Amino acid sequence: MLVFRGAQLLALRRTDQQIWHVVAGRVEIGEGPAEAAIRELQEETGLDVSTLIDLDLVQRHPPDADVLEQYLPGITEVLVHSYAIEAPPRWEPLLNEEHDDYRWCSLGEAMALLRWPEARAALTALAARHFEQRPR
Predict the structure, then answer these.
(1) Which residue, 18, 71, 91, 120, is the most exposed by fewest CB within 10 angstroms?
(2) Which domain holds residue 64?
(3) Predicted confidence (pLDDT) per residue in 93-107, tens digit
(4) Pick from 99, 101, 131: nearest CA to 7
(5) 45, burial (CB in 10 Å: exposed 0-12, middle 13-18, buried 19+)
(6) In the chain, how many domains are there?
Protein backbone atom coordinates (compact mmCIF):
# COMPACT_ATOMS: atom_id res chain seq x y z
CA MET A 1 0.00 0.00 0.00
CA LEU A 2 1.44 3.31 -1.05
CA VAL A 3 0.64 6.37 1.04
CA PHE A 4 1.34 9.67 -0.63
CA ARG A 5 0.81 13.32 0.20
CA GLY A 6 1.20 15.69 -2.70
CA ALA A 7 4.32 14.47 -4.51
CA GLN A 8 5.78 12.75 -1.44
CA LEU A 9 5.64 9.03 -0.62
CA LEU A 10 5.60 7.60 2.90
CA ALA A 11 8.39 5.10 3.58
CA LEU A 12 8.44 3.06 6.80
CA ARG A 13 11.50 1.41 8.34
CA ARG A 14 10.78 -2.11 9.56
CA THR A 15 11.94 -2.73 13.11
CA ASP A 16 12.93 -6.36 12.53
CA GLN A 17 14.89 -6.05 9.28
CA GLN A 18 15.86 -2.36 9.35
CA ILE A 19 14.76 -1.97 5.74
CA TRP A 20 12.56 0.74 4.22
CA HIS A 21 9.22 -0.44 2.95
CA VAL A 22 5.62 0.62 2.48
CA VAL A 23 2.52 -0.48 4.38
CA ALA A 24 2.21 -4.22 3.81
CA GLY A 25 0.72 -7.35 5.29
CA ARG A 26 -1.22 -10.52 4.74
CA VAL A 27 -4.86 -11.12 3.95
CA GLU A 28 -6.58 -12.72 6.93
CA ILE A 29 -9.30 -15.34 6.71
CA GLY A 30 -12.55 -13.71 5.61
CA GLU A 31 -10.85 -10.64 4.08
CA GLY A 32 -10.34 -9.59 0.50
CA PRO A 33 -7.12 -7.86 -0.57
CA ALA A 34 -8.58 -4.33 -0.34
CA GLU A 35 -10.03 -5.00 3.12
CA ALA A 36 -6.65 -6.30 4.27
CA ALA A 37 -4.90 -3.22 2.88
CA ILE A 38 -7.30 -0.90 4.73
CA ARG A 39 -6.78 -2.86 7.98
CA GLU A 40 -2.98 -2.93 7.61
CA LEU A 41 -2.94 0.81 6.88
CA GLN A 42 -4.83 1.52 10.10
CA GLU A 43 -2.72 -0.88 12.16
CA GLU A 44 0.65 0.32 10.85
CA THR A 45 0.01 4.08 10.55
CA GLY A 46 -3.24 4.93 12.33
CA LEU A 47 -4.77 6.25 9.09
CA ASP A 48 -8.39 5.15 8.87
CA VAL A 49 -9.91 5.12 5.37
CA SER A 50 -12.77 3.34 3.64
CA THR A 51 -11.69 3.48 -0.02
CA LEU A 52 -8.42 3.01 -1.84
CA ILE A 53 -6.92 3.71 -5.24
CA ASP A 54 -6.62 0.29 -6.90
CA LEU A 55 -3.45 0.34 -8.98
CA ASP A 56 -4.66 -2.70 -10.99
CA LEU A 57 -1.35 -4.40 -10.35
CA VAL A 58 -1.13 -7.94 -9.02
CA GLN A 59 2.37 -9.40 -8.71
CA ARG A 60 3.41 -12.97 -7.89
CA HIS A 61 6.52 -14.22 -6.15
CA PRO A 62 7.58 -17.19 -4.02
CA PRO A 63 7.41 -16.64 -0.24
CA ASP A 64 10.61 -15.18 1.19
CA ALA A 65 12.68 -17.89 2.88
CA ASP A 66 13.17 -15.84 6.08
CA VAL A 67 9.39 -15.73 6.71
CA LEU A 68 8.33 -19.03 5.14
CA GLU A 69 7.14 -20.36 8.52
CA GLN A 70 4.45 -17.64 8.57
CA TYR A 71 2.67 -19.20 5.59
CA LEU A 72 0.46 -22.26 5.48
CA PRO A 73 2.21 -25.48 4.38
CA GLY A 74 2.23 -25.87 0.62
CA ILE A 75 2.13 -22.17 -0.22
CA THR A 76 4.47 -21.70 -3.17
CA GLU A 77 3.32 -18.31 -4.43
CA VAL A 78 2.38 -15.00 -2.83
CA LEU A 79 0.08 -12.55 -4.60
CA VAL A 80 0.76 -8.87 -3.99
CA HIS A 81 -2.18 -6.54 -4.72
CA SER A 82 -1.19 -2.88 -5.00
CA TYR A 83 -3.22 0.02 -3.66
CA ALA A 84 -2.57 3.65 -2.83
CA ILE A 85 -4.15 6.37 -0.72
CA GLU A 86 -3.58 10.10 -0.53
CA ALA A 87 -3.00 11.14 3.07
CA PRO A 88 -4.68 14.27 4.42
CA PRO A 89 -2.61 17.47 4.53
CA ARG A 90 -0.30 17.68 7.57
CA TRP A 91 -1.19 14.10 8.63
CA GLU A 92 1.68 12.15 10.20
CA PRO A 93 1.63 8.40 10.90
CA LEU A 94 1.39 6.81 14.34
CA LEU A 95 3.68 3.83 13.92
CA ASN A 96 2.99 0.45 15.47
CA GLU A 97 5.67 -1.93 16.78
CA GLU A 98 6.50 -3.14 13.26
CA HIS A 99 8.20 0.15 12.36
CA ASP A 100 10.63 2.41 14.17
CA ASP A 101 10.93 5.32 11.76
CA TYR A 102 9.27 6.93 8.76
CA ARG A 103 10.02 9.56 6.20
CA TRP A 104 8.28 11.40 3.41
CA CYS A 105 10.37 11.24 0.25
CA SER A 106 10.22 12.12 -3.41
CA LEU A 107 9.39 9.41 -5.90
CA GLY A 108 13.04 9.17 -6.93
CA GLU A 109 14.19 8.90 -3.31
CA ALA A 110 11.55 6.23 -2.67
CA MET A 111 12.67 4.21 -5.70
CA ALA A 112 16.23 4.18 -4.35
CA LEU A 113 15.17 3.56 -0.74
CA LEU A 114 12.61 0.75 -1.07
CA ARG A 115 14.13 -2.72 -0.99
CA TRP A 116 11.47 -4.93 -2.52
CA PRO A 117 10.84 -4.89 -6.29
CA GLU A 118 7.07 -5.27 -5.78
CA ALA A 119 6.96 -1.94 -3.91
CA ARG A 120 9.01 -0.24 -6.63
CA ALA A 121 6.70 -1.66 -9.33
CA ALA A 122 3.68 -0.32 -7.43
CA LEU A 123 5.38 3.07 -7.18
CA THR A 124 5.95 3.06 -10.95
CA ALA A 125 2.26 2.24 -11.49
CA LEU A 126 1.19 5.02 -9.12
CA ALA A 127 3.47 7.55 -10.81
CA ALA A 128 2.12 6.65 -14.25
CA ARG A 129 -1.51 6.86 -13.16
CA HIS A 130 -1.45 9.71 -10.69
CA PHE A 131 1.56 11.98 -10.64
CA GLU A 132 2.16 12.25 -14.38
CA GLN A 133 -1.49 13.22 -14.91
CA ARG A 134 -1.45 16.11 -12.42
CA PRO A 135 -1.08 19.63 -13.76
CA ARG A 136 2.35 21.08 -13.07
Answers:
(1) 18
(2) 2-133
(3) 999 999 999 999 999
(4) 131
(5) buried
(6) 1
